[in-house]
Amino acid sequence: PLANVAEFLASADFAVGNLECVLSEEGPSIAAYRDRLKLIAPTEAIAELQRAGIDGVSVCNNHSLDDGPEGRDRTSQLLKDAGIQGSGNGWGFKDRIDRLGRLEGA
Q1: Given its phi and psi angles, is residue 68 left (phi above 0), alpha (psi -120 to 50 degrees) or beta?
Q2: Which H helix or E strand runs over 56?
Q3: What b-and-e string marks burial along 69-88, b requiring 16 or more CB atoms within 10 Å of the CB?
Q4: Rounded CA gap, 52 and 96, in Å?
Q5: Residue 25 in contact with residue 42, Cβ under 8 Å?
Q6: Is the pTM of this model over 0.70?
């Protein structure tokens, strides 16, 4: 899907986008759930992002929980393992809260 813009994106110093889905080995899936769409892409989509030169994506959107918290966390881990920065997943926030708790308890 990114083939038409991959060369352009790869030429950027830093390319970012919005990942409007979660990733699953069971994907792809576009299903209606409680009057809204659930967007789930196959894990192979990571390779498409890498080929297109994507350096980072926002994962905080209305589909970030389409496969539950596990899907959000799995997607964030897959991105991290692929060297693609994911933002908006709450991981940094949890780390800051954990550090704050340790500081207050010291």
Answers
A1: left
A2: strand 56-58
A3: eebbebbbebbeeeebebeb
A4: 32
A5: yes
A6: yes
Residue 90 exposed, middle or buried by CB count within 10 Å (0-12, 13-18, 19+): middle
Q: How far apart are CA 99 and CA 106, in angstroms?
A: 11
Distance CA 19, CA 16 (A): 10
In order of 2, 53, 69, 70, 106, the CA distances from 48 in angstroms are 7, 9, 24, 22, 46
pLDDT in tens, 23-70: 988 766 666 566 678 888 999 999 999 999 999 999 888 888 888 888
Q: In one letter, which amino acid is 36? A: R
C-alpha to C-alpha distance for 94 and 39, rounded to whole angstroms: 25
∠ at Cα 47 (81, 32), nearest 5°? 95
Q: Alpha-carbon distance 84 to 78, whole Å?
A: 9
Residues in the chain: 106
